[in-house]
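Why does residue order matter? Because the sequence determines the fold. Keep that principle in mind as you read this record.
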Amino acid sequence: MERWTGVEELTRVTLDHLKNHAMQILWAAAQNNAADIKSTKSVEVGMEYFRRSLGLDAVPLVPGLTSASFLYHFLRCFDEISKVWNLADRQPTKISRFRKTQASTQERKLLQKKSIRFKVLSAIFNRNAWAHLTAKALDIVGPVDAAFAASDFAKVVAGITLIHDELFVMQQSQRRDGNEVTPLTISEIERAINSFCESDLRSVMTASIDGQWLVPKCYSKEEMGKAILKAIEVARAQTRRSL
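Structure:
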């Protein structure tokens, strides 16, 4: 009798494990699908700034215009794409009033910190953000090269999207483990940025965009959107989400 009880218990435990494994597969598939949908929406949002950015970058020989235009549209794209992913990244911060000992507490979104956004810019182009902006300010050929400007902008949209994707996976993993989702910390955000920069995500994304013939596409939002999505998909095929 005890032998059969042991077999029944083993069967029950095995079935429970199989059910849990099946649920984990379904959960991971759902999260992957959600991330894919958010990536597509991010590209759509980013492309709203594409023609405006390209138009300003096409003005030749105006010192500083290319750099200022690029930074402006990078920051706008970052803000709008962040809204798509809606990550929990609010942290309380104390603000003193009139130099008194009393302080009020308000929340701030860490992804809106200027230092974080500049680290994202540095990671996308694998160089110091200010060095990249300075190079664009001094460039007198790039501004009149539509494909060159389109390539830079494509990398911005794809890079911002992939970094948010990494942060999305980080937070969803908390739900997978049955934990309460907590706001992202500075160290977690920086870890995701570094992971993007040092892994195949950035290199494959960049190679995909550089390898596409953008001259016939750079004046079409639809064609550029397809080129960016292709770069994201190729990068994701090389580095799967760790869900």
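Confidence is low (pLDDT under 50) at residues 56-65, 98-105.
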